[in-house]
Amino acid sequence: MMNVMVCVKAVPSTTEVKMDPVTKTIVRDGRQSVINPFDASALEVAVRIKERLGATVGVMSMGIPDTQRILRDCLARGADFGVLLSDRPFAGADTLATSYALMRGIDKVRARWAEQGSGDLSLVVCGKMAVDGDTAQIGPELARQLGFACVTSVCEVLEATEGALRVLREVDGGHEEVRVSLPALITVTKDVCNPRMPSITGVRFGMQGPVDVWGAADVGADPGRIGLTGSPTQVVRSFTPERASGSTPIEGDAHEQARAIVDMIKEMA
Amino acid sequence: MSGLVVDTQACIGCRKCVRACGGTAGIVVENRKARVTATCTMCGTCVGVCPVGALSIEKDEGAGSQDLSSYRDIWVFAQVDGDVVAPVTFELLGKARELAAQRARCGSPCDVVALLPCGPLASSPVCGDGEGSGAAALVAGGADAVIRCRDELLAAPDARRMASWVCELARSRRPEIVLFGATGFGRELAPMVAAELRTGLTADCTVLAIDETTGMLQQTRPAFGGNLMATIVCPGHRPQMATVRPGVMAAAVPDPTRPGTVEDVALPAGSPVRAAEALEVLRRIPRDDAASITDAERLVVVGRGIGSKKALPLMRRLCELLGAGLGCSRPLVESGWLEYRHQVGQTGVSVSPKLLISVGVSGAIQHLAGIGGAQTVIAINTDPDAPIFGVSQYSVVGDCNEVVRELVSQLEAERD
C-alpha cells in the first residue's frame, strides 16, 4: 500500500479580500481562512490514488491553531490523518524555513510509519502555489530537502502505479508527458481535478479523525532553521506602488477616444 | 528573540495595524498603544500600514551566518529553449550589468557571469563557438564571462540535474548573486538550488537594485496583485537569489565587440549531476501559439462589461488587428463564453505584456493579481469608479463595445 502526504496552506478567503480605497491595503475583516484552492486539488489527486490503488493519505500544514479546522475538512474529504505544525518558533518563516519545517514533520510521519511496519513515503502532493504568496517555491524546495524527484505544474495524472506516475505537466511552450519513479513530489494546477464535497460519513470522520499538533521540539527541528530566525529573506519595506499621478483620462466621445488609443499604440510600436 | 516590535513612543494607537491583522488578532491596542499577542505570525502586513513607522520586525541572525566577504560575482542562469537562449536571459544580463556598476560604486567590483548548460557541441548551434552561438550572444548581451558545460546530461531542461550542476559550481566559486528567469523552468529550478544551498530566494521580482550603503541586493516583488509591493533582502546568506519576470527588465542592445571569456567546464566523474535520475519525458506537446497569452506582448482582456457573448467576434477582430492575444476575467470562463486558458488572474494565468487593453473589466483584486506585470494598461469601462482604473495608466470612461468598434474601424482604415 502506498503512503501519500499532502501539504496544504490556509489562505485568506479570496472572495472576501477587499482593498481599503484610502490606504490601498488589504482589509482583513476577520473572516475565516480557507484551504488554498490549489491544495484542495492536491488532496483530491491523493484521494483518487487511494481509491484506485489503496493508500494512506496524510495531510500536513504549518500555521496557527485555527488551521486544524482546515485539516479536519481535509479528513472529511478523504484524508486519513492530519498533522498541524504549530508553535511560536515556526512563526515568520519564509519559504526555505517553511519547507524545512515541513520536511521535519514529514520525517516524523515516516518514522511512525517505519515503526508500524507500514512502509515508507512514496508520494508528496502539493498545490502548485498559494494564492496569497504566489511564490510556487515550497514544492521544489521541499522536494530538494527530501531528496525526492520533483514534477511541477501537473495538470493531469494519466496513470498511477505503486512504483511510478505518468502525468501531463505544463512547461514553457506547451505540455509534457513524463514518467517519474516514486518516491517523488508533484505540484498540481487547479485543473488537475475538481475537489469533491465531503460525504456524510466523511464529515463524521472529519470531526473524530486523528489530527496531531506538533511543535518545533516534537519534530526535532533545528531552532536556527525555522521561523523568522531560520529565514534568510527579510521583508524590509512594503509600500503602495506609485502610479504617477494615477490614471490619465482619455476624454471625448468614442471616436475621439479610439483615435487617442490608436495614436498611443502607434507611438509605442 | 526574533519578533514584531512596537515602538511605544511612536505609536499613536490608531488601530490601523489591528484592522490590517484581522482575524488572527496578532496585535491589539490597549491604552492607546499597540501590543503584540501570542497569535502574531510575523507576516508583516501591519508594518506596512503603520502611519508613524512604529512597527518593525526584528530578527536575530541565525547561527548559520556565513563569512560573506568571499562571495563576489553576479551570475545569470542562461535558459536554453531548443536552439536559442531564452529572451529573459538577456533581460537579466542587462539588469546584472547595472547591478555590477552599482556594486563597483560601493567598492565591490564584480563580473557578470552567464551559466550556459547545453548539449554536446554538435547537437545545436547554440552550443557552438563564435558567431551565432549561445556563448557569443551572452557576451554581446553583457556577460564578462560564460561558464559553459556541454554535456548530454544537461541537454534537456531537467531541473533536478540542472540544480545539481548550479549548486556544485556555486559551492566552489561563491557567487554573490544568482538570477533566474521566472519562466516555468526557472521557477522549478531556482527553489531547488536555494534549498540545497540553504539560502534565500525571492520569486517573481519586478525591481532589483543594490543598496549602495550595504551592498545588498534589494528585491522588490508585487504582493496582493501589485497593490502592495514588498522589498526583500537576504542579509546573512549567500548567494542572494531571485527569479525575475520575463518582459520586465530591459535587455541591453547586443554589442558584438564586447570582450568576454568562455570557459568550458566538464562534469567530474563523481558529479551529483550523474547520480540525479532524470525525468523520463515521453511526449512534448507544443502550445498552440495563437492561444498563448502568457508570453503575449500585446493583450486584449475582456470582462463582463462587454455584455454578451455576441461581442466576442468584435474583440477577436481587435486582437487580430493588434496582433494581440485574448484574455478574460473569471466570470467569462464561468459563463462558458471562453475557455479556462484565457483566464487572467490569481486562479488563471499571470501575464506581463507590454500593452494590455482592458475592456469591460471591473478589476476584482483576484484579477488585478494577474496583470501586475503589464507595462502599459489602457482600461475601458463605463464605471468611472471601477478598480481597474486604479492600476491602469490610461482610463477611458465610456461604452466599451462602442469604443472597441471605433478602434476596429480606425485600425482597419489605417491598414488599408
Task: Set down the secondary structure blueprint.
The complex is a heterodimer of chains A (269) and B (416).
Chain A: E1 2-7, E2 10-12, E3 18-19, E4 26-27, E5 33-35, H1 37-53, E6 55-62, H2 68-76, E7 81-85, H3 95-116, E8 121-127, H4 138-146, E9 149-160, E10 164-171, E11 174-181, E12 184-188, H5 200-208, E13 211-214, E14 234-239, E15 248-249, H6 254-268
Parallel strand pairs in A: 1-6, 1-8, 6-7, 7-13, 8-12, 9-12
Antiparallel strand pairs in A: 2-5, 3-4, 9-10, 10-11
Chain B: E1 3-6, H1 16-21, E2 27-30, E3 33-36, H2 45-49, E4 55-58, E5 74-77, E6 80-81, E7 84-85, H3 87-105, E8 112-118, H4 134-140, E9 145-150, H5 159-173, E10 177-181, H6 184-197, E11 201-205, E12 207-210, E13 217-223, E14 228-233, E15 240-244, E16 261-264, H7 272-275, E17 280-286, E18 298-302, H8 312-322, E19 325-328, H9 330-334, E20 355-359, H10 365-368, E21 376-381, E22 394-397, H11 400-415
Parallel strand pairs in B: 5-8, 5-10, 8-9, 9-16, 10-15, 11-15, 18-19, 18-20, 20-21, 21-22
Antiparallel strand pairs in B: 1-4, 2-3, 6-7, 12-13, 13-14
In short:
The complex is a heterodimer of chains A (269) and B (416). With 269 residues, chain A is of the alpha/beta class. Chain A has six helices and 15 strands.
